[in-house]
Amino acid sequence: MTIRKAVIPAAGLGTRFLPATKAVPKEMLPVVDVPAIQYVVEEAVRAGLTDVLMVSGRAKRALEDHFDRAVELEQVLEAKGDAERLAVVRAPSELADLHYVRQGDPKGLGHAVLVAAEHVGNEPFAVLLGDDLIDARDPLLEEMVKIQEREGGSVIALMEVSPEQVSLYGCAAVAGSGDVVQITGLVEKPAVEDAPSNLAVIGRYVLSPTVFEVLRRTPPGRGGEIQLTDALQELVGLEPMHGVVFRGRRYDTGDRLEYLKTVVRLASERDDLGPPLLAWLRDWLPQQ
Length: 288
Ligand code: UTP
Prior knowledge:
By secondary structure, the chain is α/β, with parallel strands linked by helices.
């Protein structure tokens, strides 16, 4: 079955970024001059998923407005003859067929996925976390979609991390080796000594709709939240699940230090900002 739908959970509280995230979802924070979530929607579209459902919480308007037309702004830019900025203002509204649903209480990532059930229906779908960026030069979701279409079941994205970092992520037990492995178990944020591998689950999933049945009976887990990892652990026993080991560039914009590194890195690669930014950094760093 062809995968058409993407779900982007963006209803978390973003507490690590307060007060910036008091009135703005963390997914709207700019990475250089583009909100993080726009990169994520662009990635879904590149993988052929043009029906995008955003799961929003507080401050839903900022998200909706970003992907909507901005008629007054467009008129001003048009009158000024600023075709370049007009194009960047219009682009998000022309990206995909966007839908919105509210999570209500942020009861966890599993719960955020469950509120997408009605929109998704009985077909496999992708989940992309809005604060996890995958570099456009290192395709991942396209690959995951292909594997799901070939193998059925679900496909999750994995990344090798150091032993100390395992406890920050969901962690996978796997069979096989190489870039595509079979998942045999999952555990959310394990202690280093309990981690079944050094493979961390990162924010891209292609899921079978069976996950909704499982989520409906998944009790709150770690942190009192309905954990997607707990539901996937049960799903592993019901249907095939594969993991794609991603070795490309990934940016975690939900963490302040990683966010700052991402902004500097991506800005330094840009033709307009890179040369002056790098020149300034080279001059400034030795003084620190
Ligand atoms: P995180 O755990 O990183 O998000 O969730 P958070 O809770 O917003 O962040 P902190 O830890 O308080 O700073 C991963 C993704 O799942 C979404 C978040 O928006 C983020 O994209 N999420 C999380 C929901 O949509 N709903 C939830 O109830 C929880």
